[in-house]
Amino acid sequence: MANPAFYRFLMRIRPFTGRYVLLLACIAGFIWYAQYSRTVIMQLQEESVSVTQTYAELIRTAITERMNNQEMNVIFEEIIRKANIPVVITDTSWNPVMWRNIVGGTFFHRTEVPAHDTSGEAVAKVRAKMAEYIKSYTPKVLYLSETQSKLGYLVFGNSELIYSLSRMPYIEAGLVAAFIFFAFLGYQNIRVTERSNLWVGLAKETAHQLGTPISSLMGWVEYVGSLTNTEEPIDPEDFVKQVHAVTENMGNDLLRLRKVTSRFSQIGSVPALVACDINEVLNDAAVYFRTRLPFLGKHIEIRLTPGALPQIHANKQLIEWVFENLLKNSVDAIVKVDGLIEIKTEYLAGEKIVRISHADNGKGISWEDQKKIFAPGFTTKKRGWGLGLTLAKRIVEDYHKGKIYLSWTQKDKGTAFCIDLPAGQDKPARGGAGTGRS
Q1: Which residue among 42, 133, 162, 331 has its CA within the 20 to 30 Å range from the CA of 259?
Q2: pLDDT at position 82, please?
Q3: CA distance 386 to 197
Q4: What are phi and psi of 271, to 5 degrees?
Q5: Please, what sign has the CA dihedral across residues 388, 391, 392, 393?
Q6: What ranges do the domains of the chain cover?
Q7: Is the pLDDT of residue 204 over 50?
Q8: Is the pTM for the entire model greater than 0.85?
């Protein structure tokens, strides 16, 4: 890879691109769209107002006392109707004489007052609209062109286009509010689903973790019972050796049970963090898996390369659980004859972090699955609960204020994870655990 550092950066921000970046992009898009729409609407309103005033002046100039009703109707139909401008012509006493495009009603239901309706109710509606128009535009006085005597008044208002444009900000605000509401519902649904998957997976993982040592204890109890129930003569020395081996193994299983219960009891609470050597914790996890590899029927080398590290403040049991989950995933992912798991530690003094690099030569992770690997309940295994990496992320990031991320992966080539943990103030010590191989 040409630039592995840039690839690691992309992998670190990838889990956030689907949820936060998209949300921020949508919000930014809505803000830009609202601002752009507002600017366009204001320009259209200004142009519409200018056109309205121009038409009103044209109408005022065209109307004279000598016009008959037919000529007046031509002006109304050809100019006023096409311009869709509400116009009222009154006499000198402000009584409506003729009108066109007088529209009233509610926000959702608009009705026009017919020009031929001279009923008291229609005239009252026209008068009400006149009062509204006068607030926006100063009525124009109609004069006889020859004598300059007053004929009446031309009252006009905004067209339906301007009215529709004035409603646009409210419609946009409603759409934005609806988007935010449904986005919030979707987010809450995702949270509920994740929480449900987390609890279901946690219950299954608990049963699985407890099941292994419990099954082992049951086997040892049955074995001890077979020793005492046999009718054949028992060699006292051999019997003592077998009982000693059984009790030692049962003690290891009980310690495992205690460790498992202690780990789960700390999930959901604030664990105690103490100074510890991360190389030592890694070595313990590696030793635990090396003893199990022969029973898994796989030839896998676990190569630990410890660096000079300062002590970090961590919960040893929980952080060891993280490494065990990564090791278990690597063991399950390796299908080659000669498997390799490489674990390296280093101290980045400039960033004051301890970095643990965990890589394997397994089957890799597909591009589609990379952003889902930390989601509760997600797994590519036929038998799995999809909780290992979820717990690892919670332990590293929530409890230890560190970072765990996929740094590299390629199909049939392998996978590499990085864990960054804040370092303590102590000076770097020599590598605690030597390189070990299975």
Answers
A1: 331
A2: 62
A3: 9
A4: -75, 155
A5: positive
A6: 20-158, 165-247, 271-422
A7: yes
A8: no
Strands (E), 205-351: 274-276, 300-305, 312-314, 339-348
CA–CA distance, 164 with 103 (Å, rounded to integer): 12
State both tokens at 129: 């609209």
| CA pair distance 64, 143, nearest whole angstrom | 7
CA atoms within 13 A on the CB side of 204: 14
Q: Which of 404, 388, 384 is nearest to 396 (CA)?
A: 404
Of 306, 305, 300, give the one whose Cα is nearest residue 340.
Answer: 300
Strand-strand pairing, 414-422 and 353-360: antiparallel
Helix, coil or strand: residue 274: strand
pLDDT of residue 205: 65
CATH number, domain 271-422: 3.30.565.10
Q: If DSSP states are collapsed to H, E and C, what string results for 127-155? A: HHHHHHHHHHCCCEEEECCCCCCEEEEEE
Tell me which H or E stretch contains 172.
Answer: helix 160-229
> What integer is the mean pLDDT of 1-5?
53
Residue with tokens 């896998």, as numbered in its chain: 300
On the CB side of 63, CA atoms within 13 Å amount to 28
Residue 354 to residues 287, 309, 312, Cα–Cα distance (Å): 21, 7, 8
